[in-house]
Write a structure and sequence with these properties.
Helix content is 38%, strand content 19%. The strands form 3 sheets. Strands 6-13-11-9-7-8 form a 6-stranded mixed sheet, with helices on both faces. It has a 5-stranded parallel sheet with strand order 3-2-1-4-5, sandwiched between helices. A two-stranded parallel sheet has the order 10-12.
């Protein structure tokens, strides 16, 4: 009796926001010979990422049209990739389907993680899609424990990292942000709605004399792993160096490294450390 051929993976819908993650998912699908379709968010996704691949553009508040497009293209599974700045309801201009969803969940009352959990519930329980995590598609891009590159933190930096993770956990419990900058025990800044790049830039003007600060990124307690995992890329490292930071620490096993080799090279050039840490 001939062995059964492996069943093809369901067609993947890539909900594409800003940054390189949508491209990484596209590359992973191509490598696995997996069918995919990109639904790109206007004002967030990079047009060059979707050139030459099956895609459509959608306004963030047009959920009804987006769902219609996904079904018309045979999508069964969804992945959320890349950042999307959260607008006000007025800026969003929600269509009927979006407005109905927001009326049910209370859009203004939810933090980012709470909103994403509600979106996933809607997509799966109401619309019948299956939402998968970035880590299931980019498993080799998860940060390992230990240094990434030649440099490692000294004792002062390790203390700043430990303090940083305590702050990240406290912030995350309130569904505020995933990142903090700590220098010699002082918290220079915490991430809120502005994002990591803006946090780094803001802290450049706040640095003290002596050894530079450390950017620490980690998961929120109880965070939905299928969306918004902490992410860094080579640009994060160069921005940290420009701001006078001495290193970057991310939560090992739960953070995405966008091009690990390029991150290590950028850190080595700048004399910074990048390290994956398992917080206590």
């Amino acid at each position: 009796m001939a062995p059964e051929e492996p069943r093809a993976a369901p067609k993947l819908g890539i909900l594409a926001g800003a940054g390189e993650l949508p491209l990484r998912i596209i590359e992973a699908c191509r490598a696995a010979d997996r069918a995919f379709f990109v639904l790109a968010f206007e004002g967030s996704a990079d047009p060059t990422v979707v050139e030459g691949v099956p895609h459509a553009w959608i306004r963030l508040g047009a959920a009804g049209e987006g769902l219609r497009i996904l079904r018309a293209n045979g999508v069964a599974e969804l992945v959320m990739a890349g950042g999307v700045r959260r607008p006000s309801v007025l800026q969003l201009r929600p269509d009927w389907r979006t407005a109905k969803f927001f009326a049910r969940i209370g859009y203004r009352a939810l933090g980012d993680d709470g909103l994403m959990k509600a979106v996933i519930h809607e997509l799966e329980q109401v619309e019948g899609f299956r939402v998968v995590g970035l880590d299931t598609l980019l498993g080799t891009s998860l940060a390992p424990e230990g240094p990434i590159g030649r440099n490692a933190p000294d004792e002062q930096a390790r203390q700043d990292i430990a303090h940083g993770f305590r702050i990240v956990r406290a912030l995350g419990a309130l569904d505020i942000g995933q990142a903090v900058v700590v220098q010699q025990g002082l918290v220079l800044g915490v991430e809120a709605i502005e994002g990591t790049d803006a946090l780094i830039a803001r802290c450049a003007a706040l640095k003290r004399e002596g050894p530079g600060g450390v950017l620490v990124k980690g998961m929120k307690p109880g965070q939905e792993r299928r969306v918004d995992l902490p992410t860094i890329g080579p640009h994060t490292v160069t921005a940290a160096a420009a701001a006078g930071l001495r290193g970057v620490a991310v939560e090992a096993g739960s953070s995405i490294l966008v091009d690990r080799a390029a991150i290590a090279a950028a850190a080595d050039r700048a004399g910074l450390f990048v390290i994956g840490v398992m917080p206590p």
